[in-house]
Amino acid sequence: MYFLNFVGEFWSTKSKYKNWHIGRIEIFKKGEKWPVEELRFFTPPTEEWMKFREEWDFREIDDLNKFKKLLSIFQCNKTTKS
Question: What is the rounded CA–CA span in Å between residue 60 and residue 28?
Fold first, then answer.
């Protein structure tokens, strides 16, 4: 069982990316004090991103690989449209 925690970060970026969502997703394994893994995100500020984050933030999951694929596909689709 894994627990997901989205953490927004601020980075001084080019003005083109000023409003983008930048951060990491901390992956905690049940019983562990510290994250066992971190996944980075850098995505435009879209409704789809906000819904994705709302759906997965602070959620317990069994299949980490499935989540990684969803995140990867989501970010690839969003960044190619900008």
Answer: 9
